[in-house]
Amino acid sequence: MSSVSVRVLVASALSGGVFALAGGAAGAEQCSGATECLAQGLELYRAKKYDQAAENFAQACHSGSADACFNLGVLYADGRGAPQDQNVANGYYEQACSMGKNSGCYNLGNALMEGDQTSRIKARSFYARACELEHGPGCNKLGAAFFESKDYKSATRYFEQSCQMDYATGCSNLAIIYHDGLEVEKDPARSLSYYERSCSLGDAGGCMKSGDALYAGEEESRDYARAYAFYAKACGLNHATGCFNSGSLADRGLGIERNKALARQYYEKSCVMNSSSGCYNLANAYYNGDEIGQDFKKAGQYYEKACAMNHGNACNRLGGIYYQGRAGALDSAVALNHFVKACSLDVGAGCMNAAMLYEKGHGAASDPKMAGGYFAKACDLKELSGCENARRLAGDAISPEESGSGGDARP
């Protein structure tokens, strides 16, 4: 429920008395009055002449511009055109806040939240002032503070205000309140409506939650077509899992006519955004030749990327490609390394493959003790044949609660 401080400099001028920035920058533009000094300061800022911009903002702040005081706070907080000094920045944020600049109140609240308990309590008053000045993020942060202290009734009130001000995170937080029934009656439909509202405001997380509710909610409320639409929108907002889920539904023909080509596009986009599952499913498409012909070299490239992100099944499949030489020269040693990694990621089939290579002396010297250890771990991971082989090598009765399916390429 956190949100960052406002960093965008603002251009409109407001009235009110302030004090000026101490010291001047040589070569600062001559200006007269709050409006002109603020405008020139913004031009200098865009030209990356931060020291001169700071001087102009100081003059505008002294002449009554709340926006200029806020901008000075940003410069001091970031150390641009002025020494980095959060205390000085806070002073300018407080001035801007006192003149009705809601983002000044909000940034000061965020800065105080980084302090001790006394400062954190004080932060609430500035979030409250920001909220009074119709600042959606401020209302949300105030709601989050009450949520943290388990005052859900107050949290709900401020999340509602934030959502009414079209702040997406406020809508998502309100959805949590109704989903979990926190001092309100549980209402999945209402929760979904707030997630949908968040999504409509451009929040990918809200789109994902909407899709999840429609895909995996109560049976009577499942709607794969709508779930697909929300996941696709999340993907359009560059949410990697949204792209993966869209691909998965297109792959299986849920909520949309089955379309392997479209599924691959979604998997590829999710893989580019470093979704290990997206890379793995894209690799599977090339490995299995789903309407594109088998291409073990490409499959290996995507398995390798997924494995580097600790996708255990991808490591196991990659080991199989190297062991069988499907993408080039056979390399048992490299294969073994990938099987070992898959096993360390709790993939039973990877443990089985590592055990068999150690027993046969493929990729490393034959080592029955090492093989037995991997068979035993495979057994722990519900691989029935791992139990049988561990018993064979160790002579001890080992049996799983139930057998696992494995399912990946084996040597």
Describe this protein's structure.
By secondary structure, the protein is mostly helical. The protein has a domain of 133 residues: Serine Threonine Protein Phosphatase 5, Tetratricopeptide repeat. Helices cover 66% and strands 0% of the residues. Helix 8 runs antiparallel to helix 9 and helix 11 packs antiparallel against helix 12. The two termini are 47 Å apart. The C terminus is likely disordered.
Task: Summarize the structure in short.
With 411 residues, the protein is mostly helical. The chain contains 21 helices and no strands.
Helicity range: 55-70%
Q: How far is it from the N-terminal to the C-terminal residue, by CA?
A: 47 Å
Structural class: mainly alpha
CATH superfamily of the domain at 1-133: Tetratricopeptide repeat domain
Low-confidence stretches: 10-27, 397-411
What about the largest sheet? none
